[in-house]
Specification:
The chain contains 4 helices and 6 strands. It has about 160 residues and is α+β, with helices and mostly antiparallel strands. It has one domain: Sandwich (Jelly Rolls), CATH 2.60.120.10. Strands 1, 2, 3, 4, 5 and 6 form a 6-stranded antiparallel β-sheet that branches. A hairpin with a 3-residue loop joins β3 and β4. The longest helix is centred in the last third of the chain and has 28 residues. The relative contact order is 0.21. The model has no long low-confidence stretch (mean pLDDT about 90).
């Protein structure tokens, strides 16, 4: 049995659904299929934000470090989700001016065996610079994701 191509995986993902084929083909150049076993960390809060993931199977726990408590899970994302948006933001101000690295705002760990397309942020940034319409569309979609997650977090807080 032949495994699906990166183009096929991106084409059917909820986040990228409906993109014109020429954009999907270009984005597929920046991705690769990955498998991460349950418990394997994708990124840690504060680590370089140089990739994002289109989840196809399994689940990802989003967490952050709380002194005295360790890593605290704040959300669990499943198939159809996109994980990682910090790569879109300009680098934060650091104590060393030479450090212009974008940093992850949260951590992520495979909560269940994960199948995803891992996207190289530098390559996606290059594609967005070459095609501002693609850049605008990806920003619009990521803004929708962050708005939905903020609303979900507010509902969870209200329940507490």
């Amino acid at each position: 049995m032949m495994s699906p191509s990166v183009f096929d995986l991106i084409s059917v993902h909820d986040f990228t659904a409906g993109l014109p084929e020429h954009w999907t083909r270009r984005l597929s150049w920046a991705g690769r299929p990955v498998y991460r076993a349950s418990g394997r960390r994708l990124c840690r809060e504060g680590s370089p934000a140089d990739r994002f993931w289109l989840v196809h199977g399994g689940a990802v726990a989003i967490d952050f470090f709380v002194p005295g408590r360790g890593d605290v899970v704040i959300e669990r994302l499943g198939p159809g989700s996109v994980v990682g948006w910090s790569w879109l933001l300009p680098p934060g101000r650091s104590r060393t001016p030479a450090d212009s690295t974008r940093r992850a705002r949260f951590g992520a760990v495979a909560a269940d065996d994960l199948r995803a397309v891992e996207m190289d942020a530098a390559r996606v940034h290059k594609l967005m610079a070459e095609d501002p319409d693609l850049g605008l569309e990806l920003h619009r979609r990521f803004l929708g994701v962050t708005a939905a997650r903020l609303a979900a977090a507010r509902h969870r807080l209200a329940e507490l």
